[in-house]
Amino acid sequence: MDPIEFRLPHTIHRPAASAKHGPVTRTTQPIVTGTSVVAFKYKDGIMMAADCLASYGSLARFRNEKRLMAVGETTLLGVSGDMSDFQHLQHTLEGLLTQEYDMDDGQKLGTKSVYKCISNIMYNRRSKTDPLWNSYVIGGIDNGQKFLGFVDLYGTTYQSTTISTGFGGHLAQPILRRRVEGREDEITEEEAVQILEECMRVLFYRDARSLNKLRRAKVTAQGVEVSEPYALETNWDFAESIVGYGS
Amino acid sequence: MLSSITQAPVEAHSHNRWEPYVDNGGTSLAIAGADFVIIAADTRQSDGYSINTRYDPKAFELSNKTVIATTGYAADAKRLVEVMEQKAQSYFHKHERVMSTPAMAQLLSNTLYYKRFFPYYVFPILAGLDSQGKGAVFTYDPVGNMERTVYVACGSASALVQPFLDNQVGFANQRAADPNRLLDRETARKIAIDAFTGATERDIYTGDWLEIFTIDQTGVHREKRELKRD
Q1: CB contact under 8 A, A129 and B20
Q2: How far apart are CA A61 and CA A63, in angstroms?
Q3: Spatial contact of A47 and A192, defined as CB atoms under 8 Å apart
Q4: Which of chain B's termini has less CB crowding within 10 Å, N or C?
Q5: Which pLDDT value is given to residue B160?
Q6: Residue B174, domain CATH
Q7: Which of these is catalytic: A27, A35, A74, A111?
């Protein structure tokens, strides 16, 4: 009887690698993925949103996934891309936070430090051509200064007043550039929520890998707050007028 | 029956191998004078047709007499600058003296060549004053090939800017002009600005902000100007 051989299609196996450490494996394509993260600066700090869907290709596989998380007390992390790679990073960050807690030196882990840490992890993994298949958005308040940064699987980093990942880079970013750029110190929380929901609604209408169940999060001087999942109001009346394949 | 079910391993094909490089665009230039040097770079960071950010500086002071400007793959560029900063710092603490620009230039070449078989995908230029106080510009390829020049343009709009500099700074193919004539400070600055206004007009990867560093006996002077944001 032959043994049952099962191999994940996305994994490269190197038989030459020593059996003691197992085969060499790496992510060569994302499997269970999260779509866009949208984030920007406003008067009191940073606003961020992401939906609750983790897709398996075109299958809406997990419909209650959390893609926004707090790292320490003043940092918010948003993720898109491979969810298992994200959970691996989450594990690493938990270790880091435990170390910081054990230090017990009264020092707090700042947003810029978390950003540098994640950036280094991402750049080091890409340099081993074994990337974590994600885009991360890191927001927070560091020494009283608003901070919003981005890192992806290439280790590419940048800071901006508006950041969106994935499809959001094409659909939400133009809306954010028009409504936020140059006004980041005057936008109230109420307007920020309205802008955020406009972006998420457009994304839900046009991104086929999105879900109308999302979480919103903010970082202010008071700390991080991640909302419970909620849905946006939508209007599909226009669909009546669509005949055939568009136009 | 069931025991015979096997799935053939998926081989790694060369066409689906992940490429660890991206081009984030951007342009830089440097012009040397008799007792000064100008080095400038825009601050746009792009990924394909998307603008990631309007302000991601590409030019950095490695010491109070040397400035480096980078274009190409932003992640590698940032790491390269970090490495150079660390080496400049450790030199300073070891020798109690700031590293000279020609020494820094050789160090940069060695640093790039050290990664010859997994290169930093970066086109750096280095500017400062030499041992006689003259303006010095050094240009590199990603694997450490180095050349000292009087002026140079690098990056996504280099094919637009370099011929402009050949004409305006090098006086190439102009019989009446002395090709070895050096520009004065204000002319060089104006030509640098014009080069970037022109590059911004025609190159989609260049724009947003321009940072100009002028280096002379008194140190490094930084100027930030607006470029078109479209």
Answers
A1: yes
A2: 6
A3: yes
A4: N
A5: 98
A6: 3.60.20.10
A7: A27
Least Cα distance to A39 among A93, A84, A79, A5 occurs for A79
Contacts of B56 in chain A (CB under 8 A): 158-159
Q: Are B51 and B230 in contact (CB under 8 A)?
A: no
Distance set, CA B71 to CA A63, A169, B81, B148 (Å) = 42, 23, 12, 18
Question: pTM to 2 decimals?
Answer: 0.90
Q: Scanning every residue of chain B, which has its alpha carbon at the shortest distance from the alpha carbon of A161?
A: B53
CA-closest candidate to residue B199, choices B36, B41, B37: B41
So what's the ipTM on this one?
A: 0.90
Beta-carbon contacts below 8 Å between A and B: 68
Residue B10 lies in a domain: no
- Per-residue pLDDT of A106-154, as tens digits, reads 999 999 999 999 999 999 999 999 999 999 999 999 999 999 999 999 9
B30 falls within a domain: yes
Nearest CA-CA distance, residue A153 and chain B, Å: 9
A220 a catalytic residue: no
Q: How many domains in chain B?
A: 1
CB of A150 closer than 8 Å to CB of A157? yes
Q: Where are the alpha helices (DSSP H) in A63-172?
A: 83-103, 111-127, 168-171
Range(s) of the domain holding residue B171: 22-225
Q: Which CATH number fits domain A30-218: 3.40.50.300, 3.40.50.10490, 3.60.20.10, 3.90.1150.200?
A: 3.60.20.10
